[in-house]
Write a structure and sequence with these properties.
alpha+beta, 18% helix, 4-stranded antiparallel sheet, Methylamine Dehydrogenase, Chain H, 467 residues
Length: 467
């Protein structure tokens, strides 16, 4: 009995954990003014300056970070857990509470029939497709709260059952002051995973993508009092317009369980002329139809033209990584231009410069390049040879002339896949390292490569011991 319930708890944990993880958990997140950055290490969040000087831990369990446009505040999404159903219930919608109730009552009925037949009980639970596996932990807490005394009488092992943690995400706003974070203010609590967090350029709102069964896009006021559901089925990484009044995103059609889906690239106005969040998302414009994955990106330009990733399929079809391309669509015409060819080995990511003139992109081999949107020429900044060779963290802009990225470590005793966080000037390609004096906790999460064979220290030892 205990093993079966623990197994169910484990599966629930996996669902919640996977839904909550994001590439943006790792890396160096620069403030808009380029004066400081958040570094998310294994022991917590720290703040560094442009010289690499780093602070003590300022926050724990941070998942996503988004700076406000003035660089004076930041939003942080972090995880918390709860084992009291009454506290859990207070954060759920009526529909979510009903899901937990139905789940719990189903399992309760099976437990009331339980007669030391573990396999039979397990088979009934596994076969019941009406039990929503996305809410297992919360449902067990409901069960314990509502039917605890009856279960204590009926099922002996229930008395010593360890309650699962119902994990939720907390989004808070902090003031940045003297290299620390002050005055936390709760903006939103959710039991769904959070895959993206971004502040509007005008500072009026926050965009949040939440996931449990698909991705939902919300726009939340900075005081947390108003929330607008923009899309119930969107891509993971929406983007704000330059004026901050509208948001761009891919919205899917049907077939939610498909890896590649047909959908629409949308622009939705969410902020009124008076600076308030609109009451509905009726001011939505469909820009084009595309094949997309949930992880595809879109970036608007100052004139509302868009840069986006999509796939060009051929038959027989190649792999999805080889077919990931960047496209440009003008705001005042139906023309779509492909910007990248097969000179990138599986496009992983792209970022638009703060002034909207240059694309920063990298591929799965670790190559980092830029493209000036005026002449559309691709220039390599970091070759495969200088790259750590595997994913470390997404390159990002510190300013219009400097990017932050991972470069191969120059330390001889480090492994060949290890890296350093660095700043590179895109004009002369000079590199300044940041992470020489960072504690290991700040680098082990996203800079140190996984061991592949012997590392260089091991090779030196072997050389002198004749192994």
């Amino acid at each position: 009995m205990t093993k079966l319930v623990e197994k169910i708890f484990f599966l629930a944990f996996c669902v919640i954990f996977l839904a909550s993880c994001s590439e943006r958990e790792r890396g160096v997140i620069w403030s808009p003014n380029g004066e400081r950055a958040m570094v998310n290490g294994s022991d917590g969040l720290r703040i560094c300056d442009e010289k690499g000087n780093i602070s003590p831990v300022v926050s724990k369990n941070a998942k996503l970070i988004a700076w406000t446009p003035d660089s004076r505040q930041c939003y942080i999404c972090r995880s918390e857990s709860e084992t009291d159903w009454k506290n859990v219930k207070a954060m759920l919608t009526p529909a979510q509470i009903e899901i937990c109730r139905k789940n719990a009552e189903k399992v309760f009925a099976y437990l009331m029939e339980y007669k030391d037949d573990l396999d039979g009980f397990g088979a009934k639970v596994d076969a019941d497709k009406e039990i929503d596996r996305h809410w297992v932990a919360e449902s067990i807490l409901y069960l314990k709260d509502v039917h605890g005394p009856e279960l204590n009488e009926k099922v002996y092992l229930w008395r010593t059952l360890k309650l699962p943690n119902a994990t939720f995400n907390l989004i808070e706003r902090y003031d940045y002051l003297n290299n620390s974070l002050k005055n936390p203010f709760v903006i939103r609590k959710t039991y769904d995973g959070v895959t993206d967090l971004s502040a509007s350029p005008n500072g009026k709102a926050l965009a949040v993508v939440e996931s449990r069964e698909g991705n939902k896009l919300y726009v939340v006021s900075i005081d947390g009092k108003k929330t607008l559901l923009v899309s119930s089925d969107c891509s993971e990484y929406p983007a704000w317009s330059f004026d901050g009044d509208s948001i761009f995103y891919f919205e899917g059609e049907k077939q939610k369980d498909c890896e590649f889906r047909s959908g629409t690239l949308c622009k939705t106005t969410v902020i009124s002329k008076t600076g308030k969040i609109l009451d509905d998302n009726e001011r939505s414009k469909k820009l084009l139809t595309s094949i997309f994955q949930a992880s595809d990106r879109v970036e608007p330009l100052p004139d509302d033209s868009v840069i986006f990733t999509s796939r060009k399929f051929s038959f027989p079809n190649k792999s999805s990584e080889e077919n990931s391309k960047i496209f440009f669509a003008k705001s005042d015409s139906e023309e779509i231009v492909q910007l990248t060819e097969d000179n990138l080995e599986g496009l992983d990511w792209f970022r638009l410069s703060p002034d909207g003139k240059i694309l920063l992109l990298y591929d799965s081999s670790g190559q980092v390049a830029i493209m000036n949107l005026q002449d559309r020429k691709l220039e390599t900044l970091l070759s495969k040879e200088r790259s750590p060779g595997e994913f470390k963290f997404s390159p990002s802009w510190r300013s219009e002339s400097e990017i932050c990225l991972a470069v191969r470590s120059t330390n001889e005793i480090r492994g060949e896949n290890d890296a350093m966080a660095a700043l590179m000037n895109i004009s002369d390609k000079t590199v300044r390292t940041l992470s020489q004096k960072w504690p290991t906790s700040c680098t082990e999460e996203f800079l140190i490569g996984k061991a592949k064979g012997k590392n260089r220290l091991q090779e030196k030892i072997d050389k002198y011991t004749n192994r």
